[in-house]
């Protein structure tokens, strides 16, 4: 495999890792505060639909993003009502939210667009288009030279190839997602809010004793979770693809959950876990590369199942131990 | 201790939750510009007013009885088995192997063999998550979710690479031999003068699911093992103190749960498609969650809830056929039922408890 092919695979990995990363960090906030969220998938799906629908109506991808985030937040609040206010079963609530999103998106898409549960394709400013960083070779250079872009990049030096192919040319949401990692680290480990958030996931009674509201902290975390899932969904339908199709999240919410466990609920590890799982997804699309590399026929199904298998292995504690926040999954009941 | 009379807990709360779910479903139908009353009439017409409609309703109900029982047995041990879908997929593989590779002389024997195959494969698929939960403390919800995806990949692989007949395009096994054909309701109840259940897929497996209801009832409430499962579910520490092994109960409860989920495939794979196809489960494993919640984990409740969901499924198909309401409406209704009977249970329960306490004070 030559250098350029490697870059192409990594480039695809980054694109595919972005929604995983956003959803994974979303789950991180929620679970660090003690609220288990298996509804990431549903929130992403709802956001993907509303983002595509509103981007189509307005012709502006940012309007779509806002709508997607709004839809995701609504589902977050339902989850908050069920798991914080009414102290119900958080897992069951997550399951309900996944189904609610799976059904409602198709129902709404059919009712608004009548195209069999999809939105019309998005074009131009309705999508988040690739950003070309300074000095990178991009489509503009190709147009100026009147030659295909792939040829120009192939002729460039290795550093320029690396810069143009892998670093440049992503949509703004990709860079935003990458920035979310240090931001999350800072917020969780260097601010008062972060300290309290982590405390409420480990020992809510202590936080309560200190006179800080457990309910509001958890709602805060759930809200951040909703926003990040919303961005992840909007990225899916208006950056990675051009429009919403039925069930387009395709289990990404659960892969993100797997990555969260893989990363042991830490933001920087989450980045590596998501990039790894993104790489698996990229290789699933290009099985020929592994075949050339190893000389063996590779089962695509195995690659697709690898994130899940790895998560089970991690959960089994054979490769390090994944210990969730101690109070996660348990509703907090104030003693009377 | 008892804040409410028992009937309120068993009947009133599920009923109110169900009405809430129905109310919001009606709102959804209104929002997409259709008439909910007309939609309901259409569903009743299509699912309950003709024998063929009942044939479909009971066919779906058979699936949901198995998966609902699977979820509820695990719930009794306070385990949330969200992996019914994967266990049912593997159960389908068990059915297919039994039907394809053993020459059965008669259907009555083959259904027994297929049930054993389905239960065995389903139980095996639940064994690893159960073992990991019991021995290594890995959360069973996460592992069973992961196993659903692994099952889908595995089934895809087995169908495409191994069971697919040479030259066939679609990922499916060969057709099962004729001797494994299960009598459908049409075969059993139609006479020359009055054709009944024409073309409907309901088959003899329905009676198998009824037997499963009875067996689960006996198991949970009449046997020592069932007592241990319930005791473990009520309080793990108390159960431990009473000498009940948490590892043993976790593994056994999940094996039974997986076996029940797997047996759903006797109905779909052997009773309907008569070959193993890629998506034979169609989400029935997840509907088991709604069915178990609504049926309050009691086999009789599961039976009623399964028939209700069978009706919704068949009615939903009719709606998709005659109106512009897509089949996904059922997914929304299912979500609302899970939300109100499961997650938001306390929202209904707490005000009712207060009401009953207030009533009691006034009478006292």
TrEMBL record, chain A:
The keyword 4Fe-4S does not apply. InterPro entries: ABC_transp_permease. It is a multi-pass membrane protein. The chain crosses the membrane at residues 65-84, 91-113, 172-189, 210-235, 255-280, 300-319. Pfam families: BPD_transp_2. Signal peptide: none annotated. One of its GO terms (molecular function) is transmembrane transporter activity. Keywords: Cell membrane, Membrane, Transmembrane, Transmembrane helix. This is L-arabinose transporter permease protein. It comes from Shimia marina.
From TrEMBL, chain B:
Its main location: membrane. CDD domains: TM_PBP1_transp_TpRbsC_like (cd06580). InterPro entries: ABC_transp_permease. It is found in: Cell membrane. GO terms for cellular component: plasma membrane. It holds the Pfam family BPD_transp_2. The chain crosses the membrane at residues 12-33, 53-75, 87-104, 110-128, 140-160, 200-220, 241-264, 302-323, 329-348. This is Ribose ABC transporter permease protein. Keywords: Cell membrane, Membrane, Transmembrane, Transmembrane helix. Coiled coil: none annotated. It comes from the Bacteria. One of its GO terms (molecular function) is transmembrane transporter activity. It is a multi-pass membrane protein. The lineage of its organism: Bacteria, Pseudomonadati, Pseudomonadota, Alphaproteobacteria, Rhodobacterales.
């Amino acid at each position: 495999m030559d250098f350029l092919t490697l870059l192409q695979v990594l480039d695809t990995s980054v694109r595919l890792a972005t929604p995983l990363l956003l959803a994974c960090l979303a789950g991180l906030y929620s679970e660090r505060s003690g609220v288990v969220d298996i509804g990431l998938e549903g929130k992403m799906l709802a956001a993907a639909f509303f983002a595509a629908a509103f981007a189509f109506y307005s012709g502006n991808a940012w309007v779509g993003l806002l709508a997607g985030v709004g839809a995701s937040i609504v589902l977050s609040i339902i989850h908050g009502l069920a798991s914080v206010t009414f102290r119900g079963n958080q897992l069951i609530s997550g399951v309900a939210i996944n189904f609610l999103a799976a059904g409602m998106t198709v129902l709404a898409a059919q009712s608004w667009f009548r195209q069999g549960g999809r939105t019309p394709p998005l074009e131009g400013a309705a999508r988040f288009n690739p950003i070309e960083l300074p000095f990178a070779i991009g489509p503009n250079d190709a147009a100026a030279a009147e030659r295909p872009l792939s040829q120009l990049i192939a002729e460039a030096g290795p550093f320029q190839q690396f810069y143009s192919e892998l670093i440049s040319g992503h949509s703004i949401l990709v860079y935003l997602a990458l920035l979310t990692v240090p931001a999350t680290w800072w917020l969780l480990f260097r601010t008062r809010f972060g300290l309290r958030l982590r405390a409420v996931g480990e020992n809510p009674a202590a936080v309560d004793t200190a006179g800080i509201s457990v309910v509001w902290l958890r709602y805060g975390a759930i809200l951040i979770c909703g926003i990040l899932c919303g961005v992840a969904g909007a990225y899916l339908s208006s950056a990675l693809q051009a429009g919403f199709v039925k069930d387009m999240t395709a289990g990404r919410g659960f892969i993100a959950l797997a990555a969260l466990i893989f990363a042991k609920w830490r933001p920087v590890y989450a980045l590596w876990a998501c990039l790894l799982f993104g790489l698996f997804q990229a290789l699933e699309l290009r099985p020929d590369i592994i075949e050339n590399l190893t000389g063996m026929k590779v089962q695509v199904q195995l690659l697709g199942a690898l994130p899940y298998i790895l998560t089970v292995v991690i959960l089994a504690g054979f490769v390090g131990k994944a210990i969730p926040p101690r109070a996660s999954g348990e509703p907090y009941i104030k003693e009377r | 201790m008892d804040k409410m009379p028992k009937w309120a807990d068993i009947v009133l709360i599920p009923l109110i939750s169900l009405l809430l779910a129905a109310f919001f479903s009606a709102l959804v139908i209104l929002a997409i510009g259709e008439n909910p009353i007309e939609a309901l009439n259409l569903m009743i017409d299509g699912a309950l007013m003709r024998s063929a409609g009942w044939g479909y309703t009971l066919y779906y109900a058979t699936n949901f009885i198995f998966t609902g029982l699977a979820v509820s047995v695990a719930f009794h041990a306070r385990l949330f088995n969200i992996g019914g879908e994967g266990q049912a997929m593997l159960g389908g593989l068990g059915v297919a192997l039994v039907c394809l590779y053993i020459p059965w002389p008669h259907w009555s024997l083959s259904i027994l063999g297929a049930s054993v195959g389905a239960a065995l494969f389903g139980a095996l698929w639940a064994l690893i998550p159960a073992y990991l939960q019991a021995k290594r403390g890995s959360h069973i919800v996460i592992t069973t979710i992961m196993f659903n995806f692994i099952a889908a990949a595995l089934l895809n692989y087995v169908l495409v690479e191994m069971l697919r007949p040479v030259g066939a395009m679609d990922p499916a096994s060969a057709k099962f031999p004729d001797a494994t054909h299960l009598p459908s309701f049409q075969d059993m109840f139609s006479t020359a003068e009055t054709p009944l259940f024409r073309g409907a897929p309901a088959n003899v497996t329905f009676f198998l699911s009824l037997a499963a209801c009875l067996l689960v009832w006996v198991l949970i409430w009449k046997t020592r093992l069932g007592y241990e499962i319930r005791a473990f579910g009520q309080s793990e520490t108390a159960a431990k103190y009473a000498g009940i092994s948490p590892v043993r109960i976790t593994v056994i409860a999940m094996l039974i749960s997986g076996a029940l989920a797997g047996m759903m495939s006797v109905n779909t794979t052997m009773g309907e498609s008569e070959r193993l196809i890629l998506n034979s489960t169609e989400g029935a494993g997840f509907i088991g969650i709604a069915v178990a919640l609504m049926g309050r984990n009691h086999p009789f409740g599961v039976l009623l809830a399964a028939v209700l969901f069978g009706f919704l499924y068949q009615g939903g198909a009719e709606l998709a056929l005659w109106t512009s309401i897509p089949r996904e409406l059922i997914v929304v209704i299912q979500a609302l039922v899970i939300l109100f009977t499961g997650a938001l249970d306390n929202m209904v329960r707490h005000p009712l408890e207060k009401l009953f306490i207030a009533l009691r004070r006034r009478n006292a």
